[in-house]
Amino acid sequence: MRSNPSHYELTTPATLEAVLDILASDLGPYTPIAGGTELMVALGAGRLATRKLVSINHLQELRFIATTPETLTLGSGTTFTDLRKDPVIATDFSLLSQAASWTGSIANQNRGTLGGNIVNASPAADSLPALLAYEAELTLVSARATRTIPYAGFHLGYKKTILRPDELLHSITLKRDFREYAHYARKVGTRNAQAISKVAIAALARLKDGLIQDIRIGAASLRDRPIRLTATERVLQNQPITRETIAAARAALTSETQPIDDIRSTAKYRAAVAANLLEEFLHQLKP
To answer: Least buried of 16, 155, 203, 280, by fewest C-beta within 10 Å?
Structure first.
């Protein structure tokens, strides 16, 4: 059953400060809406539970890309098209650039925002494994305070986050430390475009003297939230890339993931494909 638009309220404050005041007020709860690529689907399907929306799509305070020699900071309102077209992201953060190109259609990329992808908290979200691999930090703002947290601790479960009702995701910060790393990103879906991932992997690694000196692996559609495969990373740390090492890494990945059966795939398929993608990455790393 489709939703009745007359049952919903949309307000459009002129400034970020005004948005935060609304979120902190007793008039809510309000749900922020930026590109609306998820919320409008839910509205059309008659399953958008929230009745009060506050628009943040027009706020230039949230749509920016700022670089320093050490960091890249992305406003939460940065679109996937913005990510695809930025030369620093293409050079220093190719995993994120690649993930942005996977996200929906060109129209979706023009509307959808990185902040929305994070807060929507889908286990299958395209951009989130890359953010885990890059060890992103999030800045959350409210009318009363600002706090910065590691992105790795943001998701609590399926569609659950630590974001408080009066808070807004302001920005995402990445350290520019990965030019010497090998980058790997693969998404497996029903089609090459406009498909929700069955499995996605984003990984970084640096070798020294034939050993894996550092490795970071983010994944989608393998648990109830986007995850970093820390147990698998520990098995690989300071190891040569041998048949035995690869076998141990595949086993570790299987142990720390909990894929599900759903309309897009099966748990067995997801586990097998994820292990195959990891092995493909490790073979590419061989000196």
So the answer is: 280
Does 259 sit behind a cis peptide bond, omega within 30 degrees of 0 on the bond before it? no
- Could you tell me which residues come within 8 angstroms of residue 272 by beta carbon, excluding any fewer than 6 positions away? none
Residues 34-46, mean pLDDT to the nearest whole number: 72
Max intra-chain CA distance, the chain:
65
Same domain, 190 and 279: yes
How far is residue 261 from each of residues 225, 242, 269, 277, measured CA to CA in Å? Answer: 15, 32, 9, 19
Spatial CA neighbour of 113 closest among 164, 56, 156:
56
Q: Quick one: 166 and 200 in the same domain?
A: no
| Residue-range definition of the domain harbouring residue 12 | 5-55
Please report, as a single letter, which amino acid is at residue 85. Answer: K
Q: Cβ of 164: how many Cβ atoms within 10 Å?
A: 14
Residues in the chain: 287
* Each residue's pLDDT tens digit, 74-93: 999 999 999 999 999 999 99
Report the C-alpha dihedral over residues 244, 250, 252, 255, rounded to 10 degrees: -140
User: Is residue 134 domain-shared with residue 199, that is, in the same domain?
Assistant: no
